[in-house]
Amino acid sequence: MARDMSDKEILKMELDQLKKEVDTPRTAVGANCAETIAYVESHIAEDMLIKGVPDEKNPYKGDKGGCIIT
User: Fold this and answer.
1) Angle CA(44)–CA(38)–CA(45) in degrees, nearest 5?
2) Maximum alpha-carbon separation in the chain
3) Which residues contact 50 (CB under 8 A, 6 or more apart)?
4) In sequence order, which residues have a C-beta less than 8 Å from that of residue 2 and are 6 or more positions away?
5) What does pLDDT average to over the chain?
6) Spatial distance between the Cα atoms of 23 and 51, rounded to a whole number of angstroms
7) What share of the chain has pLDDT > 70, as a percent?
8) Measured by CB atoms within 10 angstroms of the end CB, which terminus of the chain is less buried, N or C?
C-alpha cells in the first residue's frame, strides 16, 4: 500500500496518526510494571503455568510417546 503512495501522502498519514496519538494518556513504565505484578500475583492461584494442570483434567496424561524418526 505504501509503495503506491507518494512521499507527501505517507507524511500526511503519519501526521494524522500522530494527531490521534497526542491525546493518548501516558503512564510511567514503573507504574505499569507495578500494576502488572500486582495483577499476576493476585491471579497466581488460577495460573496453570505456575501450579500445573491436575492429572484428572490433563488430556495428555496418558500420552508418553515421543517422536520416532526412521
Assistant:
1) 10
2) 62
3) 44
4) 10
5) 86
6) 41
7) 87
8) C
36 or 63, which is more confident? 36
Closest C-alpha among 24, 47, 27 to residue 35: 27
pLDDT tens digits for 16-46? 999 999 989 988 999 999 999 999 999 998 8
For 58, how many CA atoms within 13 A lie in the half-sphere containing its CB? Answer: 12
- Please list, in sequence order, all residues whose beta carbon lies within 8 angstroms of the beta carbon of residue 55, skipping any fewer than 6 positions away: 61
The rounded distance, in Å, linking the Cα atoms of 53 and 55 is 6
- The number of CA neighbours under 13 Å toward the Cβ of 57 is 4
